């Protein structure tokens, strides 16, 4: 992998400068991916949960992966695209809950691929820029993204592309 180092932090070079968040060990720890549970109380365990952001969403949504109908248990989700939601844990959990679905996780960060030993058979990760033309040969039944505030340059175009 080709990286750029700035102020002691590592950034990926894919579309250099477009994604402004580091992809080093410090960032992975911030996301909660490498943290483990050294505390006895439930509240303190929360701050050390693997993938903290994902865990906070699960707590907010009563252990549901989202509020849209495809996230309901037993829903037939079909083709699902997860765009830029961090470590890919949402796509993995969705694939586990919906084994009939084909789930694709779309990310700009090649390090995400290195963090995963294995994926459910119905989940795949792709490294690409979601703001470039999409190369999928089909439409998606459900597109999920969150925490994209500083990642999208043109929201109208992003929503139009998702809708098409």
Automatic annotation (TrEMBL):
InterPro entries: SAM-dependent_MTases_sf (IPR029063). Pfam families: Methyltransf_23. It comes from the Eukaryota. This is TAM domain methyltransferase. The lineage of its organism: Eukaryota, Fungi, Dikarya, Ascomycota, Pezizomycotina.
